[in-house]
Amino acid sequence: MNNEPYLHGVDDIDVAFARLERVPPPPGLHGAVMQAIGARARQRRRLGYVLIGTALCAAIVASFLLGQQLRISGAIDLAGLALANVDLFLDAPLEFALAVAEGVPWLLVLPVVVCFGTILWATRLALTPGVRLRSTGR
After folding, report:
1. Do residues 107 and 54 touch, judged by C-beta distance below 8 A?
2. 8-17 own/partner pairs: CB under 8 Å, 24+ apart
3. Counting C-beta atoms within 10 Å of the first and last residue's C-beta, which end of the chain has fewer, N or C?
């Protein structure tokens, strides 16, 4: 027979929980919470729009610099050669890809990718739903 009292009886915590009563919330709590939620949503949307604009401007500048570097390194000419001579590309696609990869300035590709990732993330912030406060008639 099991003589462990905590498995068979009512302890002090059960008694304390049984005596709990519901307490009404303080007056005006609902309105204060709704205003705080609305203010936070507006702040998130504002931050999202600022981030989208900043990342878009940075992506434009980085893309322009990347295009210039691709033109200087000859990667664009190599890609044009592959498009003009598809048979040459199909004979050695791995060598062609390695030749293009050597001409790509990877330190400029990284900021462009980060900018577009930031735009996607900031779009989530900018599309934060607004909270509409309505009168409850009280």
Report:
1. no
2. none
3. N
Report yes or no on 56 lying in a domain.
yes
User: Distance of alpha carbon 46 from its chain centroid, rounded?
Assistant: 15
Each residue's pLDDT expressed in tens, for the chain with a length of 138 residues = 455 555 566 778 888 888 888 888 899 998 898 889 889 989 999 999 999 999 999 999 999 999 999 899 888 888 888 888 888 778 888 888 888 888 888 888 999 999 999 999 999 999 988 766 665 544
What residue numbers bound the domain in which 60 lies? 46-128
Q: Is 3 domain-assigned?
A: no
Whole-angstrom Cα distance, residue 46 to residue 80? Answer: 43
Q: Both tokens of residue 48? A: 């999202």
Does residue 16 lie within any of the structural domains? no
